[in-house]
């Protein structure tokens, strides 16, 4: 009896010491995220990239109502993306590097996509969890890729977003993989071509191919021309479920597999195996969930995003990816961590 009373007393003490603050902060996290996304939508960080401004100047320049402008700007200071000194607002170093659209490493395109697409669709997450169905344009019988690719401006925004969010990974992959042992690379689902451009820029002996749907070609070609790499990189149009993948010594599939269901994932890996020469390598990278499914919250949330955005897509662990690659015939499979809670799985044909 004394032991039971002691246990109850301990549990009561722990309950009394517990605080709801962590739960409240987590639950209201959308306040902070939408404040940041609205700042990106207003192009605040590009404006401040040209120099500090007072609140009055920013109100005039961005047509902000005086009722909320100071709270909005000071919230961004409190969130650590703006600084304020003597009434002048300026970007933090981080915001200046990654949110000013005039900078090459800018990720504003991805955040605009998050604001314009993902934020409203995630409002229906509960419905997605109950039905297992996407909550984007497909909900009304449309095709999300048709919606994105319908006009050139929307397509360029989407592809630019993919480049922005992948640039740091591209630099890591360009450094970590032994490219000196290979002569050519094909990037499947290449978007603007940021990955293949970074690899080719870092390793001057390599020739590259960007593989994607035909509509992507003008955006890809503009990006490659802007990087003066037309002599070593070309675009190959196609649908990776219909057309044969172009052959190269190394094939990369980045943020591709998670878009598709298990059968389609296996099909893409089999198609990759068929396209590679003997001794060729496949690199798959995604925000892979840790094998114990306890730590990589971003990977798990990304998988929920696939629920909201795709009919059957889901994220996966490195262990699962290894198993699928073995089934496809790959050998000497290894896993290497990348930044941003991403990992790459490498297999040899």
UniProtKB/TrEMBL annotation:
Task: State the PROSITE patterns in the record.
Answer: SAM_OMT_II (PS51683)
UniProt-listed Gene3D superfamilies: Vaccinia Virus protein VP39, Winged helix-like DNA-binding domain superfamily/Winged helix DNA-binding domain
Q: Does the keyword NAD apply?
A: no
O-methyltransferase C-terminal domain location = 122-331
The record's Gene Ontology biological-process terms are: methylation
Q: Where is the O-methyltransferase dimerisation domain?
A: 24-100
Which keywords has UniProt assigned to this entry? Answer: Methyltransferase, S-adenosyl-L-methionine, Transferase
InterPro entries reported for this sequence: COMT-like (IPR016461), COMT_C (IPR001077), COMT_dimerisation (IPR012967), SAM-dependent_MTases_sf (IPR029063), WH-like_DNA-bd_sf (IPR036388), WH_DNA-bd_sf (IPR036390)
- Is the RNA-binding keyword given for this protein? no
Query: Pfam families this protein is in?
Result: Dimerisation, Methyltransf_2
Cited PANTHER family: O-METHYLTRANSFERASE CICE (PTHR43712:SF2), PUTATIVE (AFU_ORTHOLOGUE AFUA_4G14580)-RELATED (PTHR43712)
Protein name according to UniProt? Methyltransferase
Q: Which organism encodes this protein?
A: Paraburkholderia ferrariae
């Amino acid at each position: 009896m004394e032991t039971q009373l002691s246990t109850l007393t301990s549990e009561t003490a722990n309950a009394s010491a517990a605080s709801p603050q962590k739960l409240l902060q987590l639950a209201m996290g959308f306040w902070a995220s939408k404040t940041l996304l609205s700042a990106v939508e207003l192009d605040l960080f590009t404006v401040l990239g040209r120099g500090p401004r007072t609140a009055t100047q920013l109100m005039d320049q961005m047509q902000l109502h005086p009722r909320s402008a100071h709270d909005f700007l000071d919230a961004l200071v409190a969130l650590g993306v703006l600084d304020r000194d003597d009434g002048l607002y300026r970007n933090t170093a981080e915001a200046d590097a990654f949110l000013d659209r005039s900078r090459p490493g800018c990720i504003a395109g991805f955040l605009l996509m998050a604001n314009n697409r993902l934020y409203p669709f995630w409002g229906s997450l509960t419905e997605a969890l109950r039905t297992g169905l996407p909550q984007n344009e497909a909900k009304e019988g449309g095709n999300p890729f048709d919606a994105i690719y319908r006009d050139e401006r929307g397509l360029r925004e989407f592809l630019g977003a993919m480049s922005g969010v992948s640039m740091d990974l591209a630099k890591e992959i360009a450094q970590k993989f032994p490219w000196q042992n290979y002569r050519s690379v094909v990037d499947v689902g290449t978007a603007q071509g940021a990955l293949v451009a970074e690899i080719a820029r870092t390793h001057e002996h390599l020739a590259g191919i960007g593989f994607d749907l035909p509509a992507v070609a003008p955006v890809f070609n503009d990006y490659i021309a802007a990087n003066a790499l037309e002599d070593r990189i070309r675009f190959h149009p196609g649908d990776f479920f219909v057309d044969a993948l172009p052959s190269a010594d190394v094939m990369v599939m980045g943020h591709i597999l998670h878009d598709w269901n298990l059968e389609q994932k296996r099909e893409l890996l089999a198609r990759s195996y068929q396209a590679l020469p003997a001794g060729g390598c496949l690199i798959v990278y995604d925000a892979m969930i840790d094998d114990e499914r306890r730590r990589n919250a971003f990977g798990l949330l990304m998988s929920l995003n696939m629920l909201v955005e795709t009919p059957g897509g889901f994220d996966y662990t490195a262990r699962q990816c290894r198993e699928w690659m073995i089934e496809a015939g790959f050998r000497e499979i290894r896993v290497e961590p990348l930044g941003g809670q991403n990992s790459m799985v490498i297999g040899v044909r």
